[in-house]
Amino acid sequence: MRAVEGGTPQQSKIGHACTTNEDCGGATCAMVLGRLGGLSDPAPGGYCTVMCTRQSDCAAGSVCSGAPGFPGHCSAVCTKASDCRDGYRCTPLMRLPPVTDGGAAAACQPSPKADGLADGVVGSACAADGDCGNGSCVLNEPITSTTYPGGYCTGRCLADADCGARGYCAPGLLGAIGSCALRCDTDTDCPRAGYRCRAPGGIGRCAPGPKPLPDDVVGRACASDDDCGGGSMTCAAKFGSLTAPGGYCTQRCAVDADCGAGGVCVSGVDIVTLTAGLCVRSCVPPGGCRDGYTCRSPSGQAGDPHGLCTPNLPGMDAGAP
Fold first, then answer.
1. What CA–CA distance (Å, rounded) separates 80 from 89?
2. Opening angle at CA 224, ends 273 and 245, nearest 5
3. Domain total of the chain
């Protein structure tokens, strides 16, 4: 696509169908439209547009669909699906920083093709894409590097119906097509080993996750993982940079439910595949912890009713060596 001469297009055909530039009244006829992340989608029937880096590059009724300061393209504004012609959908724009320049929040962008999974495919085990019918097999999540034990069948989707029975279409990022996941209400709906029911945004879907620690186990003394319920790497000899006297039952976590009763997930993030937190024994300051540990307020405020059992600080806590 070519840049706009003079800073403002002299036409109002942005988003119209085209076969040549002459159809676009001074703009460019694009057969492919780029989006953030260096990706692109075919433009069915052609798409009249111009390059832009700011909203003022685009004519009235169109919006610069790209982050300010980065090359984007002027797109037809929309508020509902019927505003867009066949082959296009009204897509919310992920613009950074948030819209402050008068631009719209959604535009007509190419509607990608959904895979259309058969019933019983989503969430099933797989070793390769061919095991998932029209879909694809996920072995590792590319952003967080999380392993999907035994593989996980998914597919591209625009709506839940594209994912088959019990399927949920999780929205894609940056205007990308969504991906299918297996719906759930509780962990029992995710019978495969290594999977839990995660519910970011309140919608449950089966995703990789640790088996919860048994109730009231977090923070107990231990000599091996067997003392903590048998989960791998659940008996810790260190607590951050401190030695954990007598060992400490814990594990990586995303939400408090990963820690069992009596535990909280510190620094956890309620993201489907991210176990960034650590299970810690809860307590009420100043007591409630075993020898060698002190109940500390995470806020550092006196009188805080919520505390965490952490190793004594040498030379500071009572009873510390």
1. 8
2. 95
3. 3
